[in-house]
Protein backbone atom coordinates (compact mmCIF):
# COMPACT_ATOMS: atom_id res chain seq x y z
CA UNK A 1 0.00 0.00 0.00
CA UNK A 2 1.42 3.35 -0.99
CA UNK A 3 0.49 6.74 0.46
CA UNK A 4 1.35 8.54 -2.77
CA UNK A 5 -0.50 11.78 -3.31
CA UNK A 6 -2.63 12.74 -6.27
CA UNK A 7 -0.15 15.48 -7.01
CA UNK A 8 2.86 13.19 -7.21
CA UNK A 9 3.18 13.27 -10.99
CA UNK A 10 5.84 15.58 -12.35
CA UNK A 11 4.44 18.88 -13.65
CA UNK A 12 6.82 18.64 -16.57
CA UNK A 13 6.09 15.03 -17.51
CA UNK A 14 2.48 13.81 -17.56
CA UNK A 15 1.91 10.15 -16.93
CA UNK A 16 1.07 7.96 -19.91
CA UNK A 17 -2.65 7.32 -20.33
CA UNK A 18 -2.34 3.75 -19.12
CA UNK A 19 -0.70 4.89 -15.89
CA UNK A 20 -3.04 7.68 -14.85
CA UNK A 21 -4.82 5.28 -12.50
CA UNK A 22 -1.95 2.85 -11.96
CA UNK A 23 -0.76 1.04 -8.92
CA UNK A 24 -0.23 4.02 -6.63
CA UNK A 25 3.15 2.63 -5.73
CA UNK A 26 4.34 3.63 -9.21
CA UNK A 27 3.65 7.29 -8.43
CA UNK A 28 5.18 7.31 -4.95
CA UNK A 29 6.81 10.69 -4.47
CA UNK A 30 10.63 10.51 -4.23
CA UNK A 31 10.35 13.17 -1.53
CA UNK A 32 8.33 11.01 0.87
CA UNK A 33 11.34 10.55 3.16
CA UNK A 34 10.65 14.17 4.03
CA UNK A 35 8.25 12.65 6.57
CA UNK A 36 11.25 11.02 8.27
CA UNK A 37 13.14 14.32 8.16
CA UNK A 38 10.21 16.24 9.64
CA UNK A 39 9.27 13.70 12.32
CA UNK A 40 12.90 13.24 13.33
CA UNK A 41 13.80 16.90 13.73
CA UNK A 42 10.56 17.75 15.54
CA UNK A 43 11.35 14.87 17.89
CA UNK A 44 14.86 16.21 18.49
CA UNK A 45 13.56 19.75 18.98
CA UNK A 46 11.06 18.47 21.55
CA UNK A 47 13.87 16.66 23.36
CA UNK A 48 16.02 19.78 23.44
CA UNK A 49 13.08 21.79 24.79
CA UNK A 50 12.47 19.41 27.69
CA UNK A 51 9.67 17.25 26.26
CA UNK A 52 11.15 13.73 26.57
CA UNK A 53 7.84 11.86 26.25
CA UNK A 54 6.96 13.63 23.01
CA UNK A 55 10.51 13.15 21.71
CA UNK A 56 10.52 9.41 22.40
CA UNK A 57 7.03 8.90 20.93
CA UNK A 58 8.02 10.64 17.70
CA UNK A 59 11.26 8.64 17.66
CA UNK A 60 9.33 5.37 17.69
CA UNK A 61 6.98 6.63 14.98
CA UNK A 62 9.96 7.68 12.90
CA UNK A 63 11.62 4.27 13.11
CA UNK A 64 8.43 2.64 11.82
CA UNK A 65 7.99 5.22 9.05
CA UNK A 66 11.62 4.83 7.95
CA UNK A 67 11.33 1.05 7.62
CA UNK A 68 7.97 1.29 5.83
CA UNK A 69 9.21 3.86 3.33
CA UNK A 70 12.33 1.81 2.55
CA UNK A 71 10.12 -1.22 1.93
CA UNK A 72 7.90 0.78 -0.43
CA UNK A 73 10.89 2.37 -2.17
CA UNK A 74 12.65 -0.94 -2.78
CA UNK A 75 9.41 -2.50 -4.00
CA UNK A 76 8.91 0.43 -6.36
CA UNK A 77 12.45 0.02 -7.72
CA UNK A 78 11.77 -3.66 -8.42
CA UNK A 79 8.28 -3.18 -9.89
CA UNK A 80 8.71 0.12 -11.73
CA UNK A 81 12.44 0.66 -12.45
CA UNK A 82 11.73 2.88 -15.46
CA UNK A 83 9.51 5.21 -13.44
CA UNK A 84 12.18 5.47 -10.75
CA UNK A 85 14.86 6.27 -13.33
CA UNK A 86 12.65 8.89 -15.00
CA UNK A 87 12.07 10.52 -11.61
CA UNK A 88 15.79 10.46 -10.87
CA UNK A 89 16.67 12.54 -13.93
CA UNK A 90 13.61 14.82 -13.77
CA UNK A 91 14.52 18.40 -12.85
CA UNK A 92 11.62 18.78 -10.42
CA UNK A 93 11.27 15.29 -8.95
CA UNK A 94 14.94 14.24 -8.95
CA UNK A 95 16.07 16.40 -6.00
CA UNK A 96 13.35 14.76 -3.90
CA UNK A 97 15.58 11.67 -3.64
CA UNK A 98 17.89 13.65 -1.36
CA UNK A 99 15.26 13.29 1.37
CA UNK A 100 16.48 9.68 1.71
CA UNK A 101 19.93 10.97 2.71
CA UNK A 102 18.64 13.64 5.06
CA UNK A 103 16.05 11.34 6.61
CA UNK A 104 18.67 8.68 7.28
CA UNK A 105 20.95 11.19 9.00
CA UNK A 106 18.15 12.73 11.04
CA UNK A 107 17.16 9.27 12.26
CA UNK A 108 20.82 8.61 13.07
CA UNK A 109 20.89 11.84 15.08
CA UNK A 110 17.88 10.58 17.04
CA UNK A 111 19.75 7.37 17.86
CA UNK A 112 22.66 9.48 19.18
CA UNK A 113 20.71 12.01 21.24
CA UNK A 114 17.63 10.04 22.33
CA UNK A 115 18.86 6.47 22.56
CA UNK A 116 22.66 6.63 22.93
CA UNK A 117 22.99 3.96 20.23
CA UNK A 118 26.20 5.14 18.57
CA UNK A 119 26.82 2.00 16.51
CA UNK A 120 23.39 2.17 14.91
CA UNK A 121 23.93 5.88 14.26
CA UNK A 122 27.33 5.18 12.68
CA UNK A 123 25.78 2.55 10.40
CA UNK A 124 23.05 4.96 9.32
CA UNK A 125 25.67 7.66 8.71
CA UNK A 126 27.68 5.30 6.49
CA UNK A 127 24.54 4.45 4.49
CA UNK A 128 23.78 8.17 4.11
CA UNK A 129 27.30 8.92 2.84
CA UNK A 130 27.04 6.20 0.18
CA UNK A 131 23.60 7.45 -0.87
CA UNK A 132 24.80 11.06 -0.95
CA UNK A 133 27.71 10.23 -3.24
CA UNK A 134 25.56 8.15 -5.57
CA UNK A 135 22.65 10.59 -5.76
CA UNK A 136 24.72 13.77 -6.00
CA UNK A 137 26.78 12.67 -8.96
CA UNK A 138 23.98 10.76 -10.69
CA UNK A 139 21.37 13.52 -10.49
CA UNK A 140 23.56 16.49 -11.33
CA UNK A 141 25.45 14.65 -14.06
CA UNK A 142 22.10 13.70 -15.63
CA UNK A 143 20.86 17.31 -15.37
CA UNK A 144 24.03 18.44 -17.12
CA UNK A 145 24.20 16.00 -20.04
CA UNK A 146 20.50 15.35 -20.83
CA UNK A 147 19.52 16.84 -24.17
CA UNK A 148 15.96 17.94 -23.41
CA UNK A 149 15.92 20.34 -20.48
CA UNK A 150 13.05 22.46 -19.14
CA UNK A 151 13.33 26.26 -19.09
CA UNK A 152 14.51 27.75 -15.79
CA UNK A 153 11.05 28.78 -14.63
CA UNK A 154 9.77 25.18 -15.01
CA UNK A 155 12.92 23.34 -14.03
CA UNK A 156 13.93 24.71 -10.64
CA UNK A 157 12.17 24.92 -7.29
CA UNK A 158 13.01 25.12 -3.62
CA UNK A 159 13.24 21.33 -3.73
CA UNK A 160 16.71 21.67 -5.25
CA UNK A 161 17.89 22.87 -1.84
CA UNK A 162 17.27 19.36 -0.52
CA UNK A 163 20.76 18.68 -1.89
CA UNK A 164 22.04 21.27 0.58
CA UNK A 165 20.00 19.75 3.42
CA UNK A 166 21.33 16.28 2.62
CA UNK A 167 24.92 17.54 2.62
CA UNK A 168 24.51 19.39 5.91
CA UNK A 169 22.71 16.45 7.52
CA UNK A 170 25.84 14.36 7.00
CA UNK A 171 27.86 17.15 8.63
CA UNK A 172 25.47 17.26 11.60
CA UNK A 173 25.57 13.52 12.26
CA UNK A 174 29.35 13.38 11.78
CA UNK A 175 29.78 16.18 14.34
CA UNK A 176 27.44 14.44 16.80
CA UNK A 177 29.33 11.16 16.43
CA UNK A 178 32.70 12.91 16.73
CA UNK A 179 31.73 14.11 20.21
CA UNK A 180 31.28 10.49 21.34
CA UNK A 181 34.29 8.74 19.84
CA UNK A 182 37.98 8.87 20.66
CA UNK A 183 41.04 8.64 18.48
CA UNK A 184 41.34 7.42 15.85
CA UNK A 185 38.15 8.80 14.42
CA UNK A 186 37.36 12.04 16.23
CA UNK A 187 39.58 14.34 14.17
CA UNK A 188 38.61 12.63 10.92
CA UNK A 189 34.88 12.93 11.62
CA UNK A 190 35.24 16.59 12.58
CA UNK A 191 37.23 17.30 9.43
CA UNK A 192 34.60 15.60 7.27
CA UNK A 193 31.85 17.50 9.09
CA UNK A 194 33.70 20.75 8.40
CA UNK A 195 34.13 19.86 4.73
CA UNK A 196 30.48 18.92 4.28
CA UNK A 197 29.44 22.12 6.06
CA UNK A 198 31.49 24.15 3.58
CA UNK A 199 30.22 22.16 0.59
CA UNK A 200 26.63 22.72 1.72
CA UNK A 201 27.23 26.46 1.95
CA UNK A 202 28.70 26.47 -1.55
CA UNK A 203 25.67 24.59 -2.96
CA UNK A 204 23.24 26.96 -1.24
CA UNK A 205 24.86 30.04 -2.79
CA UNK A 206 24.78 28.47 -6.26
CA UNK A 207 21.20 27.23 -6.07
CA UNK A 208 19.66 30.12 -4.16
CA UNK A 209 20.97 32.56 -6.76
CA UNK A 210 19.03 30.70 -9.47
CA UNK A 211 15.92 30.31 -7.31
CA UNK A 212 15.84 33.99 -6.35
CA UNK A 213 16.36 34.95 -9.99
CA UNK A 214 13.43 32.71 -10.91
CA UNK A 215 11.36 34.35 -8.13
CA UNK A 216 11.89 37.89 -9.30
CA UNK A 217 12.23 37.79 -13.09
CA UNK A 218 9.67 35.18 -14.21
CA UNK A 219 5.92 35.01 -13.85
CA UNK A 220 5.01 33.50 -10.49
CA UNK A 221 1.74 31.63 -10.04
CA UNK A 222 0.26 29.93 -6.92
CA UNK A 223 1.11 26.58 -8.53
CA UNK A 224 4.79 27.53 -8.50
CA UNK A 225 4.88 28.12 -4.72
CA UNK A 226 5.06 24.47 -3.72
CA UNK A 227 5.76 23.55 -0.06
CA UNK A 228 9.47 22.74 -0.68
CA UNK A 229 10.08 26.48 -0.98
CA UNK A 230 10.21 26.39 2.84
CA UNK A 231 13.52 24.58 2.34
CA UNK A 232 14.87 28.05 1.49
CA UNK A 233 14.83 28.57 5.25
CA UNK A 234 15.40 24.96 6.28
CA UNK A 235 18.68 24.71 4.38
CA UNK A 236 20.02 27.68 6.33
CA UNK A 237 18.69 26.33 9.62
CA UNK A 238 20.49 22.99 9.24
CA UNK A 239 23.64 24.87 8.16
CA UNK A 240 23.36 26.82 11.42
CA UNK A 241 23.01 23.58 13.36
CA UNK A 242 26.08 22.04 11.72
CA UNK A 243 28.13 25.18 12.39
CA UNK A 244 27.03 25.28 16.03
CA UNK A 245 28.06 21.65 16.56
CA UNK A 246 31.47 22.37 15.01
CA UNK A 247 31.91 25.25 17.47
CA UNK A 248 31.00 22.96 20.37
CA UNK A 249 33.49 20.34 19.09
CA UNK A 250 36.34 22.83 18.68
CA UNK A 251 37.85 22.04 22.11
CA UNK A 252 38.76 18.56 20.88
CA UNK A 253 39.87 19.46 17.36
CA UNK A 254 42.75 21.97 17.08
CA UNK A 255 42.08 22.79 13.44
CA UNK A 256 38.52 23.80 14.36
CA UNK A 257 39.87 26.01 17.13
CA UNK A 258 42.03 27.88 14.63
CA UNK A 259 39.00 28.43 12.38
CA UNK A 260 36.65 29.44 15.20
CA UNK A 261 36.09 33.12 14.18
CA UNK A 262 35.29 32.02 10.61
CA UNK A 263 32.92 29.26 11.74
CA UNK A 264 31.14 31.56 14.20
CA UNK A 265 30.74 34.29 11.60
CA UNK A 266 29.25 31.99 8.99
CA UNK A 267 27.01 30.28 11.54
CA UNK A 268 25.43 33.61 12.45
CA UNK A 269 25.24 34.47 8.74
CA UNK A 270 23.33 31.25 8.05
CA UNK A 271 20.99 31.80 11.01
CA UNK A 272 20.27 35.41 10.00
CA UNK A 273 19.56 34.36 6.40
CA UNK A 274 17.18 31.62 7.55
CA UNK A 275 15.42 34.05 9.88
CA UNK A 276 14.99 36.56 7.04
CA UNK A 277 13.16 33.93 5.00
CA UNK A 278 10.45 33.26 7.60
CA UNK A 279 8.35 36.46 7.12
CA UNK A 280 8.87 36.26 3.35
CA UNK A 281 7.58 32.70 3.16
CA UNK A 282 4.62 33.50 5.41
CA UNK A 283 3.65 36.44 3.17
CA UNK A 284 3.91 34.26 0.06
CA UNK A 285 1.80 31.60 1.78
CA UNK A 286 -0.92 34.18 2.58
CA UNK A 287 -0.81 35.35 -1.03
CA UNK A 288 -1.08 31.76 -2.31
CA UNK A 289 -3.89 30.49 -0.10
CA UNK A 290 -5.59 33.71 1.03
CA UNK A 291 -5.45 36.08 -1.93
CA UNK A 292 -5.26 33.55 -4.79
CA UNK A 293 -7.39 30.90 -3.01
CA UNK A 294 -5.12 27.99 -3.88
CA UNK A 295 -6.67 24.85 -2.29
CA UNK A 296 -4.96 23.61 0.85
CA UNK A 297 -4.97 19.80 0.65
CA UNK A 298 -2.61 17.05 1.70
CA UNK A 299 0.54 16.62 -0.34
CA UNK A 300 3.65 14.65 0.75
CA UNK A 301 5.66 17.75 -0.10
CA UNK A 302 4.18 19.47 2.97
CA UNK A 303 6.60 17.46 5.12
CA UNK A 304 9.22 19.69 3.51
CA UNK A 305 7.49 22.64 5.16
CA UNK A 306 7.36 21.01 8.61
CA UNK A 307 11.05 20.12 8.62
CA UNK A 308 12.34 23.74 8.50
CA UNK A 309 10.22 24.70 11.51
CA UNK A 310 11.66 21.90 13.63
CA UNK A 311 15.15 22.56 12.32
CA UNK A 312 14.91 26.28 13.13
CA UNK A 313 14.00 25.34 16.70
CA UNK A 314 16.90 22.90 17.11
CA UNK A 315 19.48 25.06 15.32
CA UNK A 316 18.63 28.21 17.26
CA UNK A 317 18.87 26.30 20.54
CA UNK A 318 22.27 24.86 19.61
CA UNK A 319 23.56 28.23 18.41
CA UNK A 320 22.58 29.72 21.77
CA UNK A 321 24.49 26.94 23.55
CA UNK A 322 27.53 27.37 21.30
CA UNK A 323 27.73 31.16 21.30
CA UNK A 324 25.91 32.28 24.46
CA UNK A 325 23.11 34.24 22.77
CA UNK A 326 20.81 33.92 25.78
CA UNK A 327 18.62 36.80 24.59
CA UNK A 328 17.35 34.51 21.80
CA UNK A 329 16.06 31.77 24.08
CA UNK A 330 12.44 32.79 23.55
CA UNK A 331 12.66 31.73 19.88
CA UNK A 332 13.17 27.96 20.25
CA UNK A 333 10.65 27.84 23.09
CA UNK A 334 8.04 29.38 20.77
CA UNK A 335 8.97 27.57 17.57
CA UNK A 336 8.86 24.10 19.12
CA UNK A 337 5.08 24.46 19.55
CA UNK A 338 4.70 25.81 16.02
CA UNK A 339 6.69 22.83 14.70
CA UNK A 340 4.63 20.33 16.71
CA UNK A 341 1.38 21.91 15.51
CA UNK A 342 2.56 21.81 11.88
CA UNK A 343 3.60 18.16 12.22
CA UNK A 344 0.22 17.26 13.74
CA UNK A 345 -1.67 19.02 10.93
CA UNK A 346 0.26 17.30 8.14
CA UNK A 347 0.03 13.93 9.90
CA UNK A 348 -3.73 14.42 10.21
CA UNK A 349 -3.83 15.22 6.49
CA UNK A 350 -1.93 12.02 5.72
CA UNK A 351 -4.25 9.96 7.91
CA UNK A 352 -7.33 11.46 6.25
CA UNK A 353 -5.85 10.83 2.82
CA UNK A 354 -5.13 7.18 3.64
CA UNK A 355 -8.65 6.64 4.95
CA UNK A 356 -10.28 8.24 1.92
CA UNK A 357 -8.18 6.35 -0.62
CA UNK A 358 -7.65 3.02 1.16
CA UNK A 359 -9.78 1.15 -1.40
CA UNK A 360 -7.80 2.58 -4.30
CA UNK A 361 -4.35 1.47 -3.20
CA UNK A 362 -2.63 -0.98 -5.49
CA UNK A 363 0.83 -2.44 -5.74
Polypeptide structure, described:
With 363 residues, this protein is mainly α. The chain has a single domain (33-357), classed as Voltage-dependent anion channel (Glycosyltransferase), CATH 1.50.10. Helix content is 70%, strand content 0%. The chain contains 13 helices and no strands. It has helices at 34-48, 52-79, 81-88, 98-115, 118-145, 152-155, 162-178, 186-217, 231-249, 254-258, 260-291, 303-323, 330-357. The longest helix is centred in the middle third of the chain and has 32 residues, at 186-217. The chain is globular and about 55 Å long. It starts with 33 loop residues before the first helix and ends in a 6-residue tail after the last helix.
Short key terms for the protein model shown above:
363 residues, mainly alpha, Glycosyltransferase, 13 helices, 70% helix, globular, disordered N terminus
Amino acid sequence: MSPASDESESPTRPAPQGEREPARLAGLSPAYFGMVMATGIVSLAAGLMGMPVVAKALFLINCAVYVALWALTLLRIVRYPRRVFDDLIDHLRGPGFFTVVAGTCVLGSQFVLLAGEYRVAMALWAVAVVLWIGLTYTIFTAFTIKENKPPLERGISGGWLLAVVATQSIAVLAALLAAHVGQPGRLELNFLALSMWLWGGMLYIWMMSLIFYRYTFFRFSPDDLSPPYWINMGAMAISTLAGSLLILNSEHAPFLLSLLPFIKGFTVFYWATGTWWIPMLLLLGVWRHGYRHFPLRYDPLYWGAVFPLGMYTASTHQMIEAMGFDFLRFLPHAFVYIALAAWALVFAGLSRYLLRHSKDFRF
